[in-house]
Specification:
- It is rod-shaped, with a radius of gyration of 35 Å.
- The longest helix is centred in the N-terminal third of the chain and has 18 residues.
- Strands 6-7-8-9-11-12-13-14 form an 8-stranded antiparallel beta barrel.
- The protein is built from 4 helices and 14 strands.
- Helix 2 links the parallel strand 1 and strand 2.
- Helix 2 packs across helix 3.
- By secondary structure, the protein is mainly beta.
- The protein has 2 domains: 130 residues, no CATH class; 212 residues, Porin (Beta Barrel), CATH 2.40.160.20.
Amino acid sequence: MTRSFALLCALTAPAGADVCKPHAQLEGDPAAVASVTAELTKLGVVVDATAPAGCKTVFAAVELAREGGLAIAVKTGTQSEGRTVSDAVVAASWIDSWVADDFSPPQPGANGFFDLRPTSPPATVQPRADLDDTVAPASTEHVFGLSASAALDQAWSFDGTRWTGISGGLCVQRDAWCFGARARYATQDILVGQTAATRRDFAALATASYSKDLGRTVVVPELGLGLGKLTTDRVNGCRHVTCDPAHDPSCMEPPPDTECIEHDPAHAYALDLMSPFHVTSITPRAAASLRIAVALADHVFLDGIAAITLEPFGHGDYDLPLGVAPPPGIPREQLALPGQSIGTFEVGLGLRWGYR
């Protein structure tokens, strides 16, 4: 009788084993889930299928860790644990150990289920002895992504004048580093002495930045190097001077140009020199900025920006063109336009989108 019962158990054991193959259900980042699923399949684990009644199923959430590797939270029954591992091979080995018959699951830790950023240092999981005799080597793969940003800013040149600008940037992420380019366009209207001008500035920089996560806030210092183009155009005002009443009693000033004053009150006091002036200068630029990004939603951040840009080798003040004399009684220095400042300080606010 005993021998018959043992034979019956031996015959039925393989069938039971086939029915209760290890099962796992994964969720989280699509790329991370796909890579871990492929490795679990090699280990004989059935993924994303309903296990037969009475068979064990492990539930796992898998995400890309901010500092590289994979963050995993595993749950089966009342037991759960989260940790960060180096790659998909190690992740699959650890999940498989939860569905193995000979594995005794740990007690729930402080991490809780689906807490994907444990406070303990990243750990490398020892594969089961019956799968591999050695520890899986640490992955040398890097995490890549894209980051794009746009912002409005106010800037003050070192000469005290103010600019209004708009900027945008795009870079390719490699782990915490991001390499790319940034462009900025800014304008200003200035009144200097008894003349006026409008200026436009465009700069394009190659950039390198480093991101440091502080909870839901990301600190991003950035350096940039490139070229800038500054264009200056004189704006003729509404005043006319044809003679000097102090030296010529018969001098009669023309009546004020009421239409000009009405449409351009800011330049009502500036002289009409009837002399067009347009000049462009191209100079190297070097910039350093600090961005504080606060997460608004997945991959979307509100950017606060403080930056300083140096503009060496800029042109000095622009005097009247040769052959053009100032109106009677007007000092020449009252008609000179300022040149390029050696630098600017910028503050801005914008949005940043990043994915990796």
